Amino acid sequence: MCGIVGAVAERNVVQILLEGLRRLEYRGYDSAGVALINNDDLSIVRRIGKVKELADAINDKNGKGTTGIAHTRWATHGGVTELNAHPHASQARFAVVHNGIIENHATLRTELKAKGYTFVSDTDTETIAHSIAAQMEISGDLLQSVLTAVKTFEGAYGTVVMDKQTPDKLVVARSGSPLVIGLGIGENFLASDQMALLPVTRRFIFLEEGDVAQITRDSVEIYDINGDQVEREIIESTVEHDAGDKGGYRHYMLKEIHEQPTVLRNAIKGRISQDGLQQGIFGEGADEVFKQTDYVKIIACGTSYHAGVTAKYWLEQYANVQCDVEIASEFRYRRSFVPQNALLVTISQSGETADTLAALKLAKQSGYMSSLSICNVDGSSLVRESALSFLTRAGAEIGVASTKAFTTQLAALLMLTLALGKHKEMPTETEQQIVEGLIGLPTKLEETLGLAIEIEDLAEEFSDKHHSLFLGRGEQYPIAMEGALKLKEISYIHAEAYASGELKHGPLALIDAEMPVIVVAPNNELLEKLKSNVEEVRARGGIMYVFADKDAHFESDETMRVVQVPHCNETIAPVVYTIPLQLLSYYVALIKGTDVDQPRNLAKSVTVE
Ligand code: AGP
User: pTM here?
Assistant: First the structure.
């Protein structure tokens, strides 16, 4: 979703800003812009399309400035036009970039128009620029004006303002949309994501909800929600600088699929050994909480939600703990009941998904005993807002379609199953099976990635298809859901997932030779049931692609193509069977020629509702 970069320095900052935007491209956007102050002169350049279009439009005249802000926009209010792209200006003096949505923008617009401000865009963001200009008429001080103006905003914002009359200063404000300040020597930076600033600094201050900060070349002043000046911790980033490289792969998504054995090794390192789960891996006090936990509520969105649904099967079957899973955007707008001794678990790659964050805040007020976030980004809002956190260690995930974040979430959730099961008389045999499964998982994934060539060949058969059906049973049902999400996200083929026992309750009507049916078939206790479902499809002329264990004894014929997935322990089968489905969606998208890493209309991190 939208990205922000800003800098105040002695040198020309334009290349820092452009590089920052390039490093945020993965988040998804439709236009980009930059504003620079050079000797009291304000220049703004905006372009529809990629950052490259913007960079091509920058020249010696409009590309100089020691203070600047830049933005990639993902349209919410107002179409994809140059006029709606950020930065937005007021009085040809103030420039503003903004992530989030100002929900009361219509009211503000009417008030500001009545005061004589002229609007040139359809965006909610332009109200920020004029609101600050209006406050400047009263206070004459930029920081004070921002502190006052933000009180009139409803909704979410991460915003940065500059004034050409005070050229060595940026003022930033955060509420519901992340912002991080990067500390340099004699220069300072800011961004919506630390990834943007890794080429220039590794020292960061993550702003908290309600913070407003004034940044100059050699100072950072932060004010909290009450307007009191506060100190915030400086964090040395451990994120790899070159995490944004494709490492020889054609797409980030393919690189991230192939990184899974390595990141899974990292995810379990120091956390699990032949002796079982290590002590204290869920943080201080976690064991006390787990001891009392009788019910788990999982809240997440998209792929992270699918990880949650898989965990429900594991927690109830292996750990003997009742569990419900809910999509964050549903949970936050309905009344729900909180059982006794309930633990809230949120799952998120980014830790900044607006709906998941809002659901967590709501749940915290409604009687949950404690909250745990399973997240890939240290210091993210979700991690900071949760009582307990567990980092998945997947490394930066750039492809919009989540891959390694999902499998590391599954590993984390298996570890949570062990941690909770310990207090619920989990049989030693089950514990040992999960432990061995996890320890052997990286190697098993390496083996499974060996299917890539076979799947690339199979993907050819999908290139002219418009619809598809994914089937699974038990804990493979959410894996089928995840497979369908991957395929629709990046190849734009309509894909639906069903628990295969549901087939005869409706979806069978869809079956014909034009609708490929993808079946996930490990050798488990539901295999015979699944085989009956496969026969139902065959009897109606369906064409199937079955990912199966060799002991499941499926044979390829004219109606069915079977891909043998390496045999694995049942507890880790959902992780293993995810890999061929990721590869399938990747190769189908490749054949279709879509934008694999930045699929249309989607953003990596959904920071608006
Ligand atoms: C997955 O491929 C998607 N890009 C999307 O569903 C994603 O999982 C969802 O937006 C949640 O994101 P989060 O894990 O960062 O909270």
Answer: 0.79
